[in-house]
Q: What sequence folds into this?
């Protein structure tokens, strides 16, 4: 996802279902291939196009995204419904998101998540509900949150860091609250999956410290160091969320889309042949490799947002590494694709070639562990400035396909 908006993974290194089945579809695809698109709502990145639209206008824009997914023979929409400790459904835990009306806590006059699930399913699309666990706000002043916000009621839960506000993952009461807020949506709606992005502990900010001293003093006994304790906190969130999803709505999947590099090989012999500036294990305290190897999650969709041959983080090397991690596990591997880079003049030359993304899918098809791709994000799916997505569809998505189960 983009650094500002949906995940931070884009800077740190330096799929969907068409309607129904098709008897003529290749067997490999008919047996399951995720074709997904992310719909980022934070900061109105993909939807709605701006705050304050009428309910009818918001719904029309959402329907257009779903229809575009069908047109491109995708089968899954990954819809961000909790962008900043808020909600795109009537939640008893958190306020309505300000991306809808421009005012946090103001009801939009309809139920975006409920509508998205219904309309996606009517089109043969899966709907994966995407939640950001710990981000409270992309600014640092708690007084700008609605007075009833849980972060204002529980200021001891909040850490200011990098000009933003976060819930402290080291507090058990925070973890319980975050899980309850997320699982409210699972109880209310037949979502096909719960989806986390790449934010756990925040991406490092030079010269700043994430102040969790008090929590570490209270809960850190028995751990070798603070980093090990932090990883344990994130492990608990993942394991507990997975277990509770299965209790509430059996059959609903749990997937995570981390930054694409677990650890560089120079740091760990099990790591990838990369020189990324961020390593999820060390910097975000997310042991993404373990979650796959231990079968804690149903799928992983690493954000491999670099071109083939990129020196610090080569797409080809990372797909191979992740395929090796997933081999022999029950965790499905999907690849997160940087559609947003295609045609962006700020990106390297490879991204000016409309065929770059299509080459990604051709390369990934060599690995049986790769069960599909998800594209960031919906805005670029619609505009497709250099025809990169059209090329993917023409080369790889000639027939509809069902997502893996």
A:
């Amino acid at each position: 996802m983009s650094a500002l908006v949906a995940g931070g993974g884009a800077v740190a290194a330096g799929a969907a279902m068409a309607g129904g089945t098709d008897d003529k579809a290749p067997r490999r695809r008919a047996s399951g291939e995720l074709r997904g698109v992310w719909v980022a709502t934070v900061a109105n990145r993909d939807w709605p196009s701006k705050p304050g639209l009428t309910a009818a206008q918001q719904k029309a824009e959402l329907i257009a995204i779903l229809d575009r997914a069908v047109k491109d023979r995708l089968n899954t929409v990954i819809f961000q419904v909790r962008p900043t400790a808020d909600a795109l459904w009537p939640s008893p835990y958190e306020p309505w998101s300000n991306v809808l009306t421009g005012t946090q806590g103001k009801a939009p006059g309809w139920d975006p998540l409920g509508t998205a699930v219904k309309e996606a399913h009517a089109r043969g699309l899966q709907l994966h509900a995407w939640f950001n666990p710990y981000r409270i706000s992309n600014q640092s002043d708690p007084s700008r949150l609605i007075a009833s916000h849980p972060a204002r009621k529980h200021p001891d839960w909040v850490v200011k860091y990098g000009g933003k506000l976060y819930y402290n993952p080291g507090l058990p009461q925070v973890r319980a609250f975050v899980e309850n807020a997320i699982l409210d949506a699972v109880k209310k709606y037949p979502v096909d999956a719960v989806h986390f992005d790449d934010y756990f502990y925040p991406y490092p900010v030079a010269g700043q410290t994430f102040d969790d001293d008090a929590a570490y003093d209270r809960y850190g006994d028995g751990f070798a160091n603070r980093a090990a304790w932090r990883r344990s906190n994130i492990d608990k969130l993942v394991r507990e969320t997975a277990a509770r999803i299965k209790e509430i709505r059996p059959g609903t999947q749990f997937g995570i889309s981390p930054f694409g590099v677990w650890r560089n090989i120079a740091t760990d012999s099990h790591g990838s042949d990369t020189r990324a500036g961020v390593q999820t294990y060390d910097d975000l305290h997310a042991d993404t490799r373990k979650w796959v190897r231990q079968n804690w999650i149903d799928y992983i969709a690493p954000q491999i947002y670099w071109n083939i041959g990129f020196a610090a983080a080569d797409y080809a090397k990372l797909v191979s590494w992740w395929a090796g991690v997933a081999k022999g596990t029950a965790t499905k591997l999907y690849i997160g694709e940087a559609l947003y880079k295609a045609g962006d003049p700020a990106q390297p030359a490879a991204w000016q070639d409309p065929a770059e993304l299509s080459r990604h899918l051709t390369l990934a098809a060599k690995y049986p562990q790769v069960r599909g791709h998800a594209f960031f994000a919906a805005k670029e799916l619609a505009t497709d400035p250099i025809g990169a997505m059209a090329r993917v569809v023409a080369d790889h998505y000639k027939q509809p396909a069902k997502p893996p189960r």
The first helix runs from residue 9 to 12. The domain at 9-396 is CATH 3.20.20.80 (TIM Barrel). The chain has a mean pLDDT of 93.
